[in-house]
Amino acid sequence: MHHELLLRSSYCALKCTMNKGEELRTESGSMLAMDGTAAIAGEMEGGLWKAIKRTVLTSESFFVTTITATADDTEIYLAPRATGDIEALELKGDAYIVQGGSFLACEKGVTTDSHFTGWQGFLSGEGIFMIRGEGSGKMFVSSFGGILKKEIAAGETFIVDNGHIVAFPASINYRIGKVGEDILNMVTTGEGLACIFTGPGTVYLQTRNLRTFAETLNPFLRAPERSQGKGILGQIMGG
Cβ of 56: how many Cβ atoms within 10 Å? Predict the structure, then answer.
């Protein structure tokens, strides 16, 4: 399978050109377009229990879409939910941990499941489960904003805000810790708990945080019951 990343980085889309019989498993709703030689089907990957875990624990969809090429040179176009970039990870029998919501697609040789990150993730507000992808083949991940690729040298420590993580190798050492010396410092800097990595390894980061973006928009979103009406009075009063 050949892939190409289009319109990087703000509005990136993934183009895959597949040979007959090749399969691509994608996040439900990510299909942008495809030609007539592609067959598409939705299924509960791994059965009901695994599908429930995938939805409840990692914020991914209940169903996984499988696209199969019925002829050579089948073209498929995929796009992530959020405005951002896409990165292709080449797995060679190893594993990657992916932030919930960042999984886009993978080849047949890659399997995915929920991954427990520890109870510290609950305190960080980013959740305690992520996605573990392992096997052999390509796995595509997406971001909110652009993707930064950070190479961490052996023994080097690097700190990343939890909301800015896209993916990292399962082999890298990491822990959840606080940023700053005390609670007051955490409040005044606007930072809280973060993921502390110790190299070697490569970490993929996103330049925007979907949670803080939503918090920024929240003051501008009026609750329906606060509306002053739809008429002239409502327009004057801001309804």
Answer: 12
DSSP, collapsed to helix, strand or coil, labels residue 42 as: strand
Taking the whole predicted model, whether its pTM rises above 0.90 is answered as no
> 3-state class of 181 per DSSP?
coil
Residue 47, classed as helix, strand or coil, is coil
SS3 track for 74-130: EEEEECCCCCECEEEEEEEEEEEEECCCCEEEEECCEEEEEEECCCHHHHHCCCCEE
Half-sphere exposure of 99 (CA within 13 A, CB side): 25
Q: CB–CB of 128/116 below 8 Å?
A: yes
Instruction: Spell out a b/e string for 206-228, using b for 16 or more CB atoms within 10 Å of the CB, else e.
Output: beebbeeeeeeeeeeeeeeeeee
> Tell me: the pLDDT tens digits for 20-79?
999 999 988 899 999 999 999 877 665 555 555 555 555 555 567 899 999 999 999 999
What does the alpha-carbon distance between residue 197 and residue 210 come to, in Å, rounded to a whole number?
22
Residue range 201-227, pLDDT digits in tens: 999 999 998 888 888 888 888 765 544
Distances (CA, A) of 233 to 17, 56, 148, 229: 56, 44, 49, 7
Domains of the chain, each with CATH number or no CATH: 2-218 (3.60.160.10)
Beta-bridged to residue 43, according to DSSP, are 64
Span 125-159, pLDDT tens digits: 455 678 889 999 999 999 999 999 999 999 999 99
